[in-house]
Amino acid sequence: MGEQGTRGARGARGTRQPGTAAARDGGSTLTAEIQRVLARVDAHAARVDGAQDDAGVPDAAPAVAGPGTAPLDALAACFGLTPFERDLVLLTAAHELEPTTAARCAAACGDRERAYPTFSLALAALEEPHWSALTPVAPLRRWRIVELDDETRLTTSRLRLDERILHFLLDSPYLDARLHGQLRRVPVPDALPPSYDMAANRVAAGWTTGTSPDAPPLAQLTGGDLRSRADIAAAAAARSGLGLYAMAAEDVPTDPAERDRLARLWQREAILLPAALLVEAGELDRDQRSATESFLSGAAVPLVVSSEDPLRSERPHGARVTVPRLDEEEQLGVWTAAFEDVADLRASELRSLVAQFQLPPHVIRSAAAAVRRDLPHEDELDAAELAWRAGLDEARIGMDELGRRIEPQAGWHDLVLHDRQTSVLREIVAHVRQRPTVHQEWGFAGTLRRGLGVTALFAGGSGTGKTLAAEVMAKELGLDLFIVDLSQVVSKYIGETEKNLRRVFDAAERGGALLLFDEADALFGKRSEVKDSHDRYANLEVSYLLMRMEAYRGLAILTTNMKKALDNAFLRRIRFVVDFPFPAEHERAEIWRRVLPPQAPVKDIDPELLAQLTVAGGSIRNIALSGAFLAAEEGDRLQMRHMLAAARTEYLKLERSLTPGEVRGWV
Question: Can you give the pTM of this predicted structure?
Fold first, then answer.
């Protein structure tokens, strides 16, 4: 449709809406126009019957154009209809609205069987006829304004006015029924943060300026989440005088003919409504990507493509707009507006929520709605605690499929560590908890700018308490513990590891989680002297992980038992390094004391003797639990013999053998 389609979109914005005075008298005006066209048909019928010659046909007065209706004029302007094509539309409308039209058409054709409008009748009866109006590329057929019952009989087949066009002429606009199920209306948000507002202006500007004179009125909207992109696009459309409809890129037909029909149908709708289209592109296979690109490149009406990443294509995809990250003040403004009617929520508590959670505006409003719903029914939690819990619930969405989430239960009393390690762990907690004060109130975020993320490396053998320590810290901070197994994230395909890591961090950026990257050896073990391209990409993967950890707003922890394999350059980029040594005998005894519940029925259990087993805390917990099950199965109290049997099973798993010294004095 090209330039004509763009003009049409602008012209259709000026059409009158139902309920106006013009709309109320539109029906009678349309009737006058129809009668003018039927007068031409009657005059042709008179000539056919020979009742009077051309000089006697009283057609001067009827031929004077009556006042046109706004929808009819808009239709003609939008699609570039000639006066002949405009009158042909009126003739087909007459067949639906004027009962005498069939008989008058039959009389004009001289054939009772052809009691309907045809191209042949139009060419003979209407003013300024031209054959080009019949061609498939002319507006009437290209945009399916009129349709032929039988395309093999071009001039004699019945012409029907498309139902959507008929309702448009009668000032009853609606989305074409053939698009139902594929498209949905996108509501305009009540308000947007300032940075989102600027992004909406850029999208609207991209429709009019484009990247070149021949570029389609298309803008790309990337980053953020799906709903935020839709809100920005809807605001941009509203500022351009348009509505907004959305469809999934997966619904674009791969068959060229079907895709062309959809494109023409939508472009016609975009002009009639008027509206813009939001195409939401996710993970697409090759055929679907090609189909989507073809659909986009042929756009002649305002369109915006929404995707997580920019589309990579040789074809022009218009202006590119990235959903901006809301700064602290914008976040605070959104939280404050969402919770303005929630009592007992202080400014300091709102700032704590802003420091922890990076949620889109619509999610913050959802969290506020949950607090308002639950607050009257909660006796134990105040508004601040409910808001924190709502933030956690919203932040969890999208994360569970990327790793393992643990709601922490362990406290400081469950940890058996040297005071040196414990003090470092508490210092890490302080760094996370006091971020709003240090970064914002004291201004360190402005002077340091980069590397503000809290990063830690937990180094030690299996079962020495690394994961338990992370759980304790998560509980202290009121967060979930989210464990990502790096051995499952690392891919042999170049670029896939970074893609997987990005998905994890992007989801975690919403807040509400302490990130623990377990089995970091899977990544750091690949760090080596660069001998080929694979070594270079392996090193890039490590650098990418550390870069994202440094930029992460929360706490990100790596665990490894290969600390010596790391070079000093990497260690300098990690803020805290905590060593988890193998527990000494007195520490193992303390772990045994804490792992046995007070209510467990025990007999002659001696933690000092059990501490002779040279196993770490994780194995101690396994042995204690297995021994308890053996005792319960016997219906007896938990005794040393049960622990001995459980220890043998654990040692088999560890591929070790019990030594006489480890069980000395047990029996």
Answer: 0.76
pLDDT higher than 90, residue 162: yes
Distances (CA, A) of 338 to 367, 500, 598: 9, 33, 47
Strands (E) in 14-170, as ranges, are 146-148, 159-161
Q: How far apart are CA 58 and CA 43, in angstroms?
A: 8
Backbone phi and psi for residue 160, each to the nearest 5 degrees, phi listed first: -120, 135
CB atoms within 10 A of CB 477: 18
Burial of 221 (0-12, 13-18, 19+ CB in 10 A): buried
**In Å, how far are 155, 168, 186, 631 from 20, measured between CA atoms?**
39, 15, 25, 85
> What is the SS3 assignment for 265?
helix
Residue 88 pLDDT exceeds 90: yes
Per the CB < 8 A criterion, the answer to whether 217 and 318 are in contact is yes
Residues 356 and 277 in one domain: no
CA distance 258 to 123: 31
Q: What is the CATH number of the domain that holds 245?
A: 3.40.50.300
pLDDT for residue 163: 92
Tens digits of residue pLDDT in 423-470? 999 999 999 888 878 887 888 877 776 667 788 999 998 889 999 999
At 471, the pLDDT band (50, 70, 90 cuts) reads very high
Residue with the two structure tokens 């890129």: 249
| Residue 214 belongs to domain spanning | 184-322
In sequence order, which ranges of 110-216 are alpha helices (DSSP H)?
Answer: 119-125, 139-142, 163-169, 194-209
Looking at 126, 142, 172, the residue that finishes a domain is 172
Q: Closest by alpha carbon to 231, among 332, 317, 321?
A: 321
CATH code of the domain containing 649: 1.10.8.60
CA distance 341 to 338: 8
CA angle, residues 437, 439, 440, in degrees to nearest 5: 70
Domain shared by 506 and 589, yes or no: no
Whether 11 maps to a domain, the answer reads no
User: What residues does 183 pair with on adjacent strands?
Assistant: 180
- What are the distances in angstroms from CA 93 to CA 73, 76, 161, 613? 14, 14, 6, 94
**Closest by alpha carbon to 337, among 371, 374, 365?**
365
Looking only at Cα atoms, what is the longest distance across the chain?
132
pLDDT at 396 over 90: no
390 lies in some domain: no
Q: Where are the alpha helices (DSSP H) in 309-465?
A: 328-338, 347-356, 361-374, 383-396, 419-433, 435, 444-448
Based on the fold, state whether residues 430 and 559 are members of the same structural domain. Answer: yes
pLDDT band at 280 (very low <50, low <70, confident <90, very high): very high
Residue 236 in any domain: the answer is: yes
Of 306, 322, 338, the residue that ends a domain is 322
Q: Is 87 left (phi over 0), alpha (psi -120 to 50) or beta?
A: alpha
- Which tens digits make up the pLDDT trace of 211-240? 455 556 888 899 888 999 999 999 999 999
Residue 96: name the closest of 162, 19, 153 by CA.
Answer: 162
The amino acid present at 240, given as its one-letter code, is S
Distances in whole angstroms, Cα of residue 382 to Cα of each of 116, 333, 376, 569:
74, 21, 10, 46
